[in-house]
Amino acid sequence: MDELALFIMSYCYFLFFVDIIGYRYFGWLKLAVLSSLMMFLTLLLVVTTGYSEFNMMTVLFFLVSVGSLKRHPKLSFRHLIYFACLTTFVLTLIKLLVSQLIYVLFIALPIPFYFSTFSLIELLSGLVILSLIMLCRKKSSVIVRYLMDSSFYLVSYFIVIVGNFLLMVMATPKLTFLDSLNKKTVGLSTNLVVILFILLVCLLIFYVYMGQEKMRQIVQETNDQELFHYTAELEKNHEVLASFRHDYLNILLTLDEGIRKKDLALLEQVYYDTIQPTFDLINDQALDLIKLSHIQIPSIKSLLSVKITEAQQKQVTVLVDIPNSIGDVSMKLADFTRCLAIIMDNAIFEAAESLDKEVIIAFFQLKGEQKLIVKNTCRQSHIDLQAIYQKNYSNKQGQGTRGYGLSNLKKIVDGYDNISLETSFQPPYFSQLISMKIRPNNKEKV
Amino acid sequence: MSVFILEDDVLQGERIKSLIREVSTEIGFDSLPIFLTAKPDRLLEQLVHSSQMNLYFLDIELKDEALKGLEVAQKIRELDSHGVIVFVTTHSELAPISYQYMVSALTFIEKRIALEDFREAVKACLQAYQQAMKPTSSQDIFIYETSNTTIRLDFSEIDYIMTAEPHRLEMVTDYRVIRFYGELKEIESLDARLVRCHQSYIVNTQKIIEVATKERQVILASGQKLPVSRRLIKPLKAKWLESLL
């Protein structure tokens, strides 16, 4: 029973460690093998040599070597040590906490005491910790990644190292140096360790909270930026229209005069010099931005106007087809905007490289479904429609460019059961169609 | 079986009419009655008195008419559910993809392109109409409709359907991939020609060109190879051979 408890704890160490370094290549089986290895080695060392320091040392050793096994880009040695110490510190303390709780529970409940109860408590606390780790897998790796970028790292490094040292001191060490420390500071070190742990947790909460505020700020800023762009573009359009109207009136006056005087030469001149060229002006894409007025959601409107302007700067023609008013979308707005951005970016990029340089956007409602269609010309003669959705598939040249866009699009779409994604290619047009089935109260992600 | 043209510019209307006459003779589809008008009401009146399954060339931008191009098309759809509708537009002011979907229009043609291209476009529409009129081409439409999604396409387009993620299916056709929420179980039961060949694959037996028993694979006309599970290979082969007869 003791061995099982130890095994579970070792497994917890590895699992937690692997989660926080963001390393997903270990399967359950591999982790189990590693944990048993670590467990046996630890037992062996401690029993044969009598140095209980080996408990912590072997754990740290194993974690650090596992972490340095495969090439993980961002992990320097300092980071590895940090993560390993963090793992041991946090988990040991949580285990102490949990064991204490279970012990108290045992006493409170009318359960008879056996010799094996202590081992049972160890086992139970191990299982509790394991389940906690499993529940928070995704969250922990995300949180840690964020924390690494902030100053939390530096501050907590110190706490973690000292905490581990104290733990070693507390755990009946054999090294004379540590032993004497133990004898001297028995009560103090326990208190100190607990204080350090609480401090660490407080810091964590503080930084995570600060992080959320920052995120909110950034989103707000981006929204404001886009809205600003949109209104600026709109004003530009008004100017274009106003000047056009002014020219038009002038032309009318000249024509009027020419007809009164029956001056054919003048009429011809006016037509070829001034009227004919305006044919291009009428088809000018600046007017397309006005069509976006059918969209009543500001963030979508501004996103589209920014993307359209971007496209036009790359000499790409954008045709906007939004026949009816659009008030709402049947998915979380943030997700929809992301999808739209990904699709538009891809479409504009491809169109810019193509011969005809054309992008068509249509957004309308039909029979209880909202449809968003983005078509673009592209230069390929053949596209594997399923391969393009794999991560890291990218048409872009250059190192370090990753094709995350379409795989993210897929992920978002998969999160909603009322949304389907149709990708088609009929040369020269590549097209993406998102269909959202309208259901009342349907913003829930699956 | 007639051609209806809705065009308010007299010259343009005559141009299209004579072009259609010329091209239809060329592709051996002659003596098609052609009805040209500038007024939507007249067209609809005429339509009520004639048969279904017609070809329509509609100008989207009708000036001074109560019924705009889209509305006319919708009314036509109500009267003629299988007719072929083609929109005729002036470039870029209206890009009628939405209209296309809303009334199941075939396509749209721009007026201001070169005569040659315009002629080719009209010819393509007539050929599509000719194809649709053949007695052998029955409307073989595959429909999968749930509260989550609606899929509607020609059955002959379907190559196979696979499970991409739990409850996420992908339908693969010649030129497109549709990723939707659904269950293979439900789709299997919709048509006898859709056969389950694997835990995660349903194949359209009409698209199979070879069943490789040893490798446990089925090869489609598109060149795609799909896996077949051990216990399904025999029934699959049987159903495929059956469908060939």
Give the helices and strands of chain B as they follow along the chain. Answer: EHEHEHEHEHEEEEEHEEEEEH
Silhouette of chain A: elongated
Number of strands of chain B: 15
Name the poorly predicted regions of chain B.
none
- What is Rg of chain B? 22 Å
Any overview of this molecule?
The complex is a heterodimer of chains A (446) and B (245). By secondary structure, chain A is an alpha+beta fold. In chain A, 65% of the residues lie in helices and 9% in strands. Chain A is built from 14 helices and 5 strands. Chain A has helices spanning 2-20, 28-49, 53-67, 77-108, 117-135, 137-149, 152-170, 176-260, 264-275, 278-282, 288-291, 298-313, 333-353, 405-414, and strands at 317-321, 358-366, 369-377, 419-426, 429-437. By secondary structure, chain B is an alpha/beta fold. Chain B contains 7 helices and 15 strands. In chain B, the strands form 4 sheets. Chain B has a 5-stranded parallel β-sheet, with helices on both faces. Chain B has a 5-stranded antiparallel β-sheet with strand order 10-9-8-12-11. In chain B, strands 13-14-15 form a 3-stranded antiparallel β-sheet, covered by helices on one side. In chain B, strand 8 (158-165) and strand 9 form a beta hairpin. In chain B, helix 1 (10-26) packs across helix 5 and helix 2 (40-48) runs parallel beside helix 3 (69-79). The model of chain B has no long low-confidence stretch (mean pLDDT 85). Chains A and B meet through strand 1, strand 2, strand 3, helix 14 and strand 4 of A and helix 4, strand 9 and strand 10 of B.
